[in-house]
Protein 1
Amino acid sequence: MAKLTARGVETAADGLHADGGNLYLKVVGGSRSWVFRWKRDGKVRQIGLGSVKDRSLKEARELAAKLRHALLNGEDPAAVYARLSGKGERIPTFAEAAAMLIEAKRPGWRNAKHAQQWENTLRDYVLPKIGKLTPQAVTVEHVLSVLRPIWTTKAETASRVRQRIEAILDYCAAHGWRDDYNPARWRGRLKALLPEPSKVKRIQHQPALPYVRVAEFYRKLTERPGMAARCLEFILLTACRSGEARGATWREIDFETKLWTIPSERTKTGKEHVVPLSEPALALLRSLPRMEASPYVFFAPRGGMLSDMAMTATIRRMHADDLAAGGQGFLDPASDRIITAHGLRSTFRDWAGETTHHAREVIEHALAHQLKDKAEAAYARGALLAKRRALMDDWARFVTRPAGVVVPLPVREHAKMTS
């Protein structure tokens, strides 16, 4: 095999050109850089050694020789390169690298919501399992330990989690903190180990409580202490998403107009959503303590935002306590699974659609759903606030009614769309 020459480095065509000793010249368009490639566990791995502008052929060969020596001694070339290239005295953990990537990408993201979504999914699913590992230590088995529990039950979330792990590990490889072998990559990696996302990406209905039991659930919820229980009350009374309630700040609440305005960067649709607040919802807000150092309405013990797991844990305790007291627990009869905070939105939707006179577009707008029909969507952007307030007031009366009391509501009429 002919070795590279200084002239050859300058004139080589696009592609990967071997120099020997695991050193390669990578040419892509006008970019020319050095690559160190090796095989481990039957897989080819590589790390970048910098641009030819920054490192001469002689310097690249000297560095490659050191990495080859480390490889023969059983060391990790990526870790050795990070140490030799002065990229810091220590390699960051996966969690630290994730935070660096988010900060690097933040200026280019459409809004703050995108960064928050990254942080939330990493916090809830990834960092507890692999956050303390160095990037090079993350293996396929580690990635699978994150994905398998949610791959079929939360298909959309799982796909995003996989993509984010892959992006973080690519970021680490670009900085020399690990080799180029990415265990989170779909093609050639996880595709052989997990079912296709399209096969599991069917609608996964969140376990929901039958609306006939919602008042019972509400009464037992109000008896429980803790901010997570209060947040669940608010979710139930407003039919909002868990993340919207957990991230609510006092600046978003207007007690005079009785409105909660969720800014566009915190909504799933990317559009501002205004929620009419019923009297029970307002009374709940007025009863809450405030933490001077925290902007959140429903703050965690240290002032940050409550986690989604806090909501889940509260419902699970309620279920267990109800069973222990001789009750039915709080299961979705269709799936026999414990209900979820998100499932309370389905409870509201079933109640509104099956027992009330409120028009479908009003109900869908209350849930901040995007309407597929353009004419209907245009109508929904009109003066629906008063109609949605009436809907939420009806819902609050139904939820907060005393035991044994039936709330009379008009039989639902099939309202025609306004042209």
Protein 2
Amino acid sequence: MTAATAEVLGPLLHRCAQGDEKALEQLYRLTSPQLFALVLRMLRRRDWAEEAMQECYVRIWQHAGDYSPAQSQPLTWMSRIVRNHCIDWLRKPQLEVPDADGTIVEAWADDAPGPLARLAQNQDSRRIAECLKRLEAIQRQVIALAFFDDLSHSEIAQRLSAPLGTVKSWCRRGLERLKGCLS
């Protein structure tokens, strides 16, 4: 690990701690070859190593705020997380049941998003909530009625005792402000 790479990884970890997903992508691109080699060497199975790598980067993302440049180099810190995770992985019982006809896999199949996707959804939800707070109260109320209660503009106008055109304007202006805030 060169000093220049350490100078790049430290700020990336700091940006990860602030929730910057692009920083995580860059961090992954720069460090995954070395860390995957470590995981593969420790676990000795490619399928386990691939799964463990995903979990390791989720842990790195979650604990990026704990990184201290005064205590270690960035890759050393990340390697310690990976090493500890691999040790935990090897300690847990690996119960493998043969599944010749695929019934077990089908029973456990899940279309739910993975850990990184859930993390991204959580962050998107926080961003949307923050942007909604910045809207005027009436715009927030109209958007909530339209999207969360699934009401039409006329139903909202009736519920708020407001003219239909006014409700449409509130909704349009609120959505424009939301779009500006989110972009």
